[in-house]
């Protein structure tokens, strides 16, 4: 539980959630529609991962 809270509050995770919400929602919808054949959703997860890879981390605060 604490790991989930930590990762969900990390700035890059928040950026990915915001920037890639649509591809992730499409992936979730595919999973819901293909419970017995989740392999049908490979294309959707690929789109989400491609989006996530393009998200740039926020600049580090200058000290």
Task: Describe, in plain words, how this protein is organized in 3D.
The chain has one domain: Helix Hairpins (Orthogonal Bundle), CATH 1.10.287. It is mainly α and 63 residues long. The model has no long low-confidence stretch (mean pLDDT 87). The chain is built from 4 helices and no strands.
Q: What order do the helices and strands come in, and which of them pair?
A:
Blueprint: H1 2-9, H2 11-19, H3 21-33, H4 42-54
Shape call:
elongated
**The top level CATH class name:** Mainly Alpha
Could you please say which CATH topology applies here? Helix Hairpins
Percent of residues in beta strands: under 5%
Using only C-alpha atoms, the radius of gyration works out to 14 Å
Spatial separation of the terminal alpha carbons: 32 Å
Tally of DSSP β-strands: 0
Average pLDDT: 87
Task: Kindly summarize this structure in a few lines.
This protein is mainly α and 63 residues long. 68% of the residues lie in helices and 0% in strands. The protein has one domain: Helix Hairpins.
Keywords for this entry:
4 helices; mainly alpha; 0% strand; 63 residues; Helix Hairpins
């Amino acid at each position: 539980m604490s790991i989930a809270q930590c990762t969900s509050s990390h700035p890059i995770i928040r950026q990915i959630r915001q920037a890639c919400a649509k591809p992730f929602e499409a992936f979730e919808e595919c999973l819901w529609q293909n419970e017995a054949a989740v392999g049908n959703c490979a294309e959707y997860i690929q789109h989400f991962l491609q989006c996530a890879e393009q998200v740039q981390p926020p600049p580090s605060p200058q000290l």
